[in-house]
Amino acid sequence: MADLSQLVKAYDVRGVVPDQWDESLAELFGAAFVEVTDADALVIGYDMRPSSPGLAQAFARGAAARGADVTHIGLCSTDELYFASGALGLPGAMFTASHNPARYNGIKMCRAGAAPVGQDTGLADIRALVERWMTEGAPQPAATPGTVGERDVLGEYAAHLRSLVDLSAIRPLKVVVDAGNGMGGHTVPTVFAGLPLEVDALYFELDGSFPNHEANPLDPKNIVDLQARVRATGADLGLAFDGDADRCFVVDENGDPVSPSAITALVAARELAKHPGGTVIHNCITSWSVPEVVEENGGTAVRTRVGHSFIKEQMAKTGAIFGGEHSAHYYFRDFWNADTGMLAALHVLAALGGQGRPLSQLVAAYDRYAASGEINSTVADQAGRLAAIKTAYEDRDGITLDELDGLTVTAADWWFNLRASNTEPLLRLNVEARDAGTAARVRDEVLAVVRA
Question: Which candidate, 61, 63, 82, 64, places its Cα nearest to that of 73?
Fold first, then answer.
């Protein structure tokens, strides 16, 4: 019997196929999703992994057996599924394991309007139902089963994104795009069609075995090919998408990575120009640059915990126009508060193409501090090491501590955040300072305690 404690995560379902889950379990998840959301219709999409079509069809069988009408949109990116959920007003399920290796697959679920389904918003209830049915047997079918149909929304998705960013006056740009054999290879050609872009396509072939590199641009080794191609061809910029193409990473004309915090600040300034006085959400490990730029542009910055459910909750609560995370997730009110790396990419293209400077100079205004990047340490006692760090800093003059998400320690010219991983025996450290020397000193001081 499957162990759902290992399969059902904080925000989604994710595990190895068929070792941890298979189509029979996907069918139960489909039935439970309908039961918990009370959906009479839903939309389903999937990525390029070999197991995805079968899992999606099994989920659809379970949902239809409970009386819900199912619309398959087929191969799509996660943000294309969110578009379908928002535009059609339907709950949705996306079959993907994002950036995880090929043997993994998962389900990202949402209510109508792309509202997230997480542990506290229905996922725990779905898990409980599936566990019960695994023991007692599947529920009786509805008296009238639902229908199963198909709809292609790629063109509508692309048109909606293009309607949100003015690209009419941009200069011609050469852009290298690394799709990592993921869903960016499916969506980029349609979204970028007709723009004055010379697109150099890297790894656009849909291949869930990821023959070239993992579709995880957060790991520096996976953008090496992109960086090399940008430098070799004299491109204006490079874009890298993860496996389900909901995150976008940017490199400048020198092949140097542009921090997601700088992209968050750049997009925030552009969104505030459209929506003066708006609120922008950022998580607690984005750069100091983000709230500074938001306030300089007349907006209100709101700090929240890491994770899309917290960002989306705060966006709904505050009416925020935009939100950004260090992990290159970008959320837009104009996109049902959902995350879309493609829309962020269009903003970068519009900002770069609307003026004459290279990207490195353009983003310099938004990248003001020295950062360590995320550093992971394997520890046996996460709570004990966090407590040791708190003890080491809590009585120092000029230091403030908060525990919004892990432990954040802030001084006049530096800050760091130390958080426990939810899924691994790791502590994650992020440090930022006004200069690189200070960032290195604080990093080494914290790691000496964490790894003691």
Answer: 82
